[in-house]
Amino acid sequence: MPNWAYILIFLFIAYLLVSVLLYFLQDYLMFKPEKLPEDFQFYYENQITEEYNVETRDGAIINGLRFKAKNPKGIVFYLKGNSKSIKGWGKFAVDFTRLGYDVLMVDYRGFGKSTGRRTQKAIKRDMQVVYNKIMEKVEEKYIILYGRSLGSGFAAKLASMNNPRMLILDAPYYSLRHVAKKYIPFMPLSLLLKFPMPTYKWLKYVQCPVHIIHGTDDHLIPYKSSIKLSKIKPEQTTLYTVIGGGHKNLNSFESYHKMLHDIITSKPEKRKSDTLGNETEHSTSKPYA
């Protein structure tokens, strides 16, 4: 057998090995969870919180925190990124409570106190279960979905299946397959990825206003992904650009807080379902029972 044939065989075996490793190690590469003991006590200075657990149909426990605002105007369901737990992410709740909105944050399976095996399907189902729990106490027109980084895809999926007041995407990806392709373009990602997360597909079915915030210097999830997302349904989407903003530091920019204030305090727009059939009146009553 000629030498070039041995080289080809070696390269083929190496390619298969890398593919197998990528398939089985992607959960480790993609998620950076922080585990918390069951008796861990959450505390945030000057924040009133309420902890709760939701049990899913497969027996998993989804742990979450509700940050309470005084005389709340509604609630923000905040879907966080791929690292740590709500112990660390809770510091961002003040961005919304000071604007008069409660904030609900949950840990995905395997993060914090949450249990269960992580899959894309399971997390999507979990978030819908939590959303349903919110709607037991809050009218849907008072719910704002906020997805940050990894959570932007899950938030888009939730919005496509429900009808919240608005959807806010912070540093979103077009799809995780597109993000991965930037780093390993030679791999068959459509076959290997367990979390393809096609945000662009889900956005096509979103009926509420969509607000996208992204920094121009984001080197993890490129700014151009938000440009592409904003063109899917341009009539109901607004793109907000943080000049010089990276992937993890938007909160440190004054312009980000100005954008968030303008978005959150904007006059509620009629969602498409509000103009179909019997028109829904926007009540001035408090959103909580």
UniProtKB/TrEMBL annotation:
It comes from the Bacteria. Keywords: Hydrolase, Membrane, Transmembrane, Transmembrane helix. The keyword Lyase does not apply. GO terms for molecular function: hydrolase activity. Residues 71-187 form the Serine aminopeptidase S33 domain. It comes from Muriicola soli. It holds the Pfam family Hydrolase_4. The keyword Membrane applies. This is Alpha/beta fold hydrolase. The chain crosses the membrane at residues 6-25. Coiled coil: none annotated. Residues 268-289 are annotated as: Disordered. The lineage of its organism: Bacteria, Pseudomonadati, Bacteroidota, Flavobacteriia, Flavobacteriales.
